[in-house]
Amino acid sequence: xxxxxxxxxxxxxxxxxxxxxxxxxxxxxxxxxxxxxxxxxxxxxxxxxxxxxxxxxxxxxxxxxxxxxxxxxxxxxxxxxxxxxxxxxxxxxxxxxxxxxxxxxxxxxxxxxxxxxxxxxxxxxxxxxxxxxxxxxxxxxxxxxxxxxxxxxxxxxxxxxxxxxxxxxxxxxxxxxxxxxxxxxxxxxxxxxxxxxxxxxxxxxxxxxxxxxxxxxxxxxxxxxxxx
Amino acid sequence: xxxxxxxxxxxxxxxxxxxxxxxxxxxxxxxxxxxxxxxxxxxxxxxxxxxxxxxxxxxxxxxxxxxxxxxxxxxxxxxxxxxxxxxxxxxxxxxxxxxxxxxxxxxxxxxxxxxxxxxxxxxxxxxxxxxxxxxxxxxxxxxxxxxxxxxxxxxxxxxxxxxxxxxxxxxxxxxxxxxxxxxxxxxxxxxxxxxxxxxxxxxxxxxxxxxxxxxxxxxxxxxxxxxx
Amino acid sequence: xxxxxxxxxxxxxxxxxxxxxxxxxxxxxxxxxxxxxxxxxxxxxxxxxxxxxxxxxxxxxxxxxxxxxxxxxxxxxxxxxxxxxxxxxxxxxxxxxxxxxxxxxxxxxxxxxxxxxxxxxxxxxxxxxxxxxxxxxxxxxxxxxxxxxxxxxxxxxxxxxxxxxxxxxxxxxxxxxxxxxxxxxxxxxxxxxxxxxxxxxxxxxxxxxxxxxxxxxxxxxxxxxxxx
Amino acid sequence: xxxxxxxxxxxxxxxxxxxxxxxxxxxxxxxxxxxxxxxxxxxxxxxxxxxxxxxxxxxxxxxxxxxxxxxxxxxxxxxxxxxxxxxxxxxxxxxxxxxxxxxxxxxxxxxxxxxxxxxxxxxxxxxxxxxxxxxxxxxxxxxxxxxxxxxxxxxxxxxxxxxxxxxxxxxxxxxxxxxxxxxxxxxxxxxxxxxxxxxxxxxxxxxxxxxxxxxxxxxxxxxxxxxx
DNA sequence: AATGAATGAGGATTCATTCAT
DNA sequence: TATGAATGAATCCTCATTCAT
Lengths: 228, 228, 228, 228
Prior knowledge:
- The structure is a homotetramer.
- Chain A is mainly alpha-helical.
- Chain A has 2 domains: 1-68, no CATH class; 70-226, Tetracycline Repressor, domain 2.
- In chain A, 68% of the residues lie in helices and 0% in strands.
- In chain A, α1 (22-40) crosses α2 (50-57) and α9 runs antiparallel to α11 (209-226).
- The N and C termini of chain A lie far apart (63 Å).
- Chains in contact: A-B, C-D.
- At the A-B interface, α7, α8, α9, α10 and α11 of A face α7, α8, α9, α10 and α11 of B.
- Chain B binds a DNA duplex through residues 2-3, 16-20, 24-25, 28, 46, 49-51, 59-63, 65-66, 70-71.
């Protein structure tokens, strides 16, 4: 009988307790990712330190390396988790009954991202991650996940927005990725940049992610519709 | 006869030769930036090492610091130079006589960026630079440059595209920045990512910057036009 | 049988062997300090390099930073250790039964310092250390240690030398610190200075720390006694 | 006719003007030393930068090296100047008619130092200077100066204080050097140390140079007198 | 004599990763 | 499985000094 079945009601495996069963290990992995997610809010890739992940997880540094081969693999796993959540929410939304118009789709796309602020900071990181040392297999798994889920959601979009030609759903998603990355970066400035933007003179450069994202999406959708 | 009187036609000041006049110094500075620009193609912010800039420039490490106080200041200067060139070309294009339609503006915007591939990799770096140690004044100078030139070009855009309401020119430019950053990141993958995208199965994720950028711009412009 | 059970009699932990227990770590720390102490003999603050400490300790540079946050903290720890030893010896000496006269106290003070030659070179360093980057807390801890131990020893001195008024014990110690620093500097010249002092003509400038210190102390004590 | 005789009333040679005559050169040297003296107040040996001396002098860095072979030689020259002034003042004071008692001599010694605060910060530096690269001849010149002037002043002291045995004058001076160094260091703490000493708890460690120096001298002199 | 651009050795510190326990 | 001490490569930046002009 595994420890996991001994009536332990807590969902979380106490740190420093050995994860013996596969389920325990999965849980530990998830805990590490949860810690990393929380940390990510106030860290850049460079300042995101494995030592701090370990400390915040209540684990030793070496233990992290039992679950993730490198720092990059850990961050990639984090990104995957967020993306899956995002796709799930999007697909669920698109599965609802119509009628769909541009505004409703825009609302859905914004709502789905709204709860996933970390994604806007993590998605641009993907490029940085891939510049570094990650196992080819992890990289391929990520790309395949991205493609498969994109294809599925693209189909949903094409279903809800009849003016989209075949293939335009995927193209729309690619544009969204670009906007998430680009607007995310502008809307989330480093402390010094934020300080500068607080100056009245520079205020026109301020960008609020939510409204800007919505405005972009809407414009894009109307543009695609008009293109017919 | 001094070197200065030899009608030196060469544009490049030989390394290790003292840059005495203001012009010489400007030239040396430009050389360093040119070296940095070339290096930037295969380096991330973290791997971009001052030692390598020096070595590639044929200069000593310390010499770099005569021209740029920090690594960040060097990279910010690089970005500024590219941006200024981009704005100049854009403004020059917009100054030509009309008639302007969406397609012509899109063509201009693409053409202007086409020769400035490095910009798509450097613009997203700005966020990283600002996270690090640069003098507040350098940061402010950059932001003000960005704002001033954006405002000027925005006016040009509003002149050429009558359907743009006041303020929409700047908004359009902000969208462009986001797209440059976002699409740039997707179109310029790290070596490992590129290798993966070469696999047939993942080919739908391939993005060619030029066409994608043009398609986005066109869609956005039609969308803004339709919004009237 | 683990290393820990082998009745390890050696006082020194072999370099590169992991210091696992708290005792091991304390020992490693002490080893580093011992290395630093030996090095200090032929180094100034500026030339005292962490790389050399590491090399001489048979450890990696990074390892030093597991035990001391900065170079300054290491040197401050070295100074603290020497001071504590000095105070301990002084207090032990003063605890012995009297009768105490000036000569006996002078003898004690000299004897106590005699075995701690490094102190005369390290005490003046304190000023330099404090000019640099150390945590405020480390600095305060040092100052409080110095004050507490000084106060305790001052009490001992006042007990043994009845002609000392309350407060004069501490004042005497402050004078001693000044003499240790000042005479220490004169008695321990740099190689070039030593070479010069070897010249017959300059011999009057030679100072032997021990006798000079004793002569100063004696004079001071007689002076304080006469002041009554 | 040298430029120096052309009725130039200013005592100072304008920076960047060539020093042609020997007198001009001497003047330029003196200017550099004056600048260095002013700088020394807020600099340690390490932070005392030749570049700043040059800038403050209105000269180029290279020019300094026409007058002083190394940074250390410059500082040694500065120390020599201060010492000579100190000895001059001391000898002048001792030349006045008696009667001399301990208090009057102490007053003289304090007064003579009082105007030369920089000396208390520079004298301890001598050791550091000699640890570095200075020409042997400069070093010997300094030592001989120190010895000669010490001998002369020692004679003056022995004349004024009849209880001093032959040789005790020089010994007294050596003690003074030690006290200047030692007390100087305690009385002139680095900013962080000063901040700590401002805390009430650590106030007993505060030392005011003037009173402390006087008290020490007095005690020493009474001690030497009593030793008869 | 004056300049100041160029030099380049040198040092502190960080942190992902390993591996002995 | 968990640990965490040890590693060591890697990087930015300083500054006394030189030397071509």
